[in-house]
UniProtKB/TrEMBL annotation, chain A:
Residues 6-246 form the ABC transporter domain. GO terms for molecular function: ATP binding; ATP hydrolysis activity. This is ABC transporter ATP-binding protein. Keywords: ATP-binding, Nucleotide-binding, Transport. PANTHER family: CONSERVED COMPONENT OF ABC TRANSPORTER FOR NATURAL AMINO ACIDS (PTHR45772:SF9), CONSERVED COMPONENT OF ABC TRANSPORTER FOR NATURAL AMINO ACIDS-RELATED (PTHR45772). It comes from the Bacteria. InterPro entries: AAA+_ATPase, ABC_AA/LPS_Transport, ABC_transporter-like_ATP-bd, P-loop_NTPase. One of its GO terms (cellular component) is plasma membrane. SMART domains: AAA. The keyword Nucleotide-binding applies.
TrEMBL record, chain B:
InterPro entries: ABC_transp_permease, BCAA_transport_permease. The keyword Cell membrane applies. The lineage of its organism: Bacteria, Pseudomonadati, Pseudomonadota, Alphaproteobacteria, Acetobacterales. This is Branched-chain amino acid ABC transporter permease. The chain crosses the membrane at residues 6-26, 57-80, 92-115, 135-159, 188-210, 216-234, 265-286. It comes from Neoroseomonas marina. GO terms for molecular function: transmembrane transporter activity. One of its GO terms (cellular component) is plasma membrane. Pfam families: BPD_transp_2.
Automatic annotation (TrEMBL), chain C:
Signal peptide: none annotated. It holds the Pfam family BPD_transp_2. The chain crosses the membrane at residues 6-26, 33-52, 58-80, 124-149, 181-203, 215-242, 263-282. It is found in: Cell membrane. Keywords: Cell membrane, Membrane, Transmembrane, Transmembrane helix. Its main location: membrane. It is a multi-pass membrane protein. This is Branched-chain amino acid ABC transporter permease. It comes from Neoroseomonas marina. InterPro entries: ABC_transp_permease, LivM-like. One of its GO terms (molecular function) is branched-chain amino acid transmembrane transporter activity.
Amino acid sequence: MTDEVLRTENLARAFGGLQAVAGVSLSLYAGKVTALVGPNGAGKTTTFNLITGNLRADSGAAQIRGKPIMGLKPWQVARLGVARSFQDLRLFTHMTVRENVLAATETASWFWQPGGGAARRAREDRAARALEATGLAALAHARAVDLAYAERKFLSMARILAAEADIWLLDEPASGLDLASRLRFGELLRGATARGVAICLIEHNLDVVTELSDRIAFLDQGKVLAEGDPQTILRDPALAAIYFGDRPQEAA
Amino acid sequence: MLFLQLLLQGIQTGALYALTAAGFALIFGATRIFHFAHGTSFTLAGYAFLFCWNGGLPGWIGTLAGIAVAMLFGLAMERLVYRPIQRHEGSFFTVFVAAFGVAVVVQNLVGMVAGRGFASVDTRLSLATEVLPDVFLAPIFWIAIAVAVVLFAALSAFLTRTHAGVALRALAQNPDLLRAYGLSSNRLSMLAFAVGSAMAAPAAILTAMTTGLNEAIGHHVMLISMAATIVGGVGSLRGAALAGLMLGVAESVALQFVDTQWAEAVSFLVLFAFIIFRPSGFFGVAQTR
Amino acid sequence: MIAYAANLATIVAIFGILAATLNFVVGFAGIFSVAHAVFFGLGAYAGAQVALHIVPDALLACVVAAVVAGGLSLCLALPALRVRGEYFVAASLGLQMMATTLFSEAKAFTGGIGGLVAIPRPTLFGMEVSVLPLALVALALILFATALLQRGAFGRTLQALRDAESAAEALGKNVAAAKTLAMLFACAGAGIAGALFALHLSFVNVESFTMDQSVLVMAMVIIGGTGTLWGPVIGAIILLSLPAGLAFVPFIPATEVGAVQQIIYGLAMTLLMIFRPAGLVGDLSKGRATA
């Protein structure tokens, strides 16, 4: 396939007795959308947390363009070009929409950002473009906490856009969106992949998965059961049985 | 024998700390409200007892008055301060500041009404006798231990045997569950405040009989309760009680090595160390939000 | 009368610095420190020692005070990196209580309970000056710096980590560094206030650096309005004018003025939290920290 930008090898993590992730090997490619699919509790979000350094892996490795990232802190991983969204969004609730997005462009933790006025204007441009692309420009001065549901989801995407990362880890970004919003969301993703962004998407709605993804990794009980193009995976009756919970020993 | 003397004194202080801290922990566990005015319940109960005593009333009336005042104060806080705040935004800090304001007001009112400085009740119970060579104990020591033991037994019976008690414990773990079972979390929250605040009264009365009270004692009590709750592990009554006992003993035993001024600092050193190295406390799960 | 007004203005400026810097961590970073008086005290002792033993140069005293208080701000940054909310308040209270004891006992540095006395009048470039202009300039500079930081990227970073720490980290923000820096700035500012305080009174002791003082500064921030620029200064003016105002109320006995004052601000804190949690100046629509 094309250029692999992120790769995990046998990532594993247990919580108490529960093996949440049991050896996930996964690759993300520039310009491709990989969907992580699987029943609840399959370890999808945990896999994200292991990659981003929010959780420490018990074993396994991960690298970004060959650079090992295990043991890095979340902000260090972010600075290697990884942006993520959260299932519960985690917006900066008491800041305005524009401030939310501007904050995503400012990574230096020092009293001021490097680069002076020119760099500041460039960041403001980036923020403005992200707001434009997500249709939030008119709401720039509203507080995040006052937004409607779909607008919040797009604000979370706007932050990621503005961060100019080239690896996106999106945790159920399209859940609960109406059709029109979903179409716009699809455009956002296609725009990004056209620029070479590698996207990993956790998604439950299989229509969305078929519509947006180039590859599917099917996770169950902390393992990748199958990997491949959407048609093959989604037509596999064994996987469908697992996904729709027909299995007698279905765990939570 | 100094060490034994200090140890016994520490156990006495610690038993009182344990009672107060358990009340604080009960309230925090059940309602998630960091009741910073808990020390004020203690102050009010102590002074209520003091007034009754100085008015020539028998001790048991003073005791009941103390318990009633503490309970009423707790309930008033829940109704008039915490509930309205939680109805709007109710961030933890808003709650903290409001409670602190009340504590400041009450402290100064008590100072104006009852006079500033130490006040205590003289009883024969606090006269120490030599029980071992160089070890002095007053009857109050045994009373403090007995009161603590009896109250903890009663509390644990209440929490495990009665319907309301079980619900109270459940509230700490899963408020939604309660709603599903049709229990009113409002009423349980009031119950928690009533019981938790009442727990401060016996300790206040015993303190009035031993070291005495002053109008600012609430601060100290609140800080110790908070320290014990965190060191013990939030959500664990047993933890809070043990930590309270431990802090009392530590403060007292430390006197063998340092001057009295440092006694209180010892408690806060312990608290500080726990927060940095083990914020979940002895028995708690991590609560770092 | 003029001397009285000048004295009040100096004290207001000094507490304005304290309140503004405390507001910086409370209102923006959501770090609720109840130990600000500790750093005020460190600055005061450091400034006093410089004036007593080296030269009574105001600038040097302020710089040394800022360095000492800022350096020791790590004592508070450490728990701030570990815990939030109630836990951090508990840690800061613990620090405050320990520091009070330390201040009364470390006689070599603080003069113990008696404090440090006969601190010489301050000079600036060799000329003797009064503290009022220095305090006003310091307040102006600190407000200016605070405004710059609050409105710029750093303020956004602090607010972001206040609202959603994990999301801020996921966007590449080094949360630990930002919090430590914010504490450093706030505590260094408190240190400067302390040095000016020591030079102004020419006497300091532990009573000015207790928990009561921390609560008073906290009350200034709360009453004025957290997260605003001018709120804390206005809070400082109100609370410091209170005793003067009460002195003119005839039916309050002089011995009770202190208590009445505390009752008023305690009541104000409680009522504000119930009815107007954003403070007097605060704009409710801007919202507050939710720890």
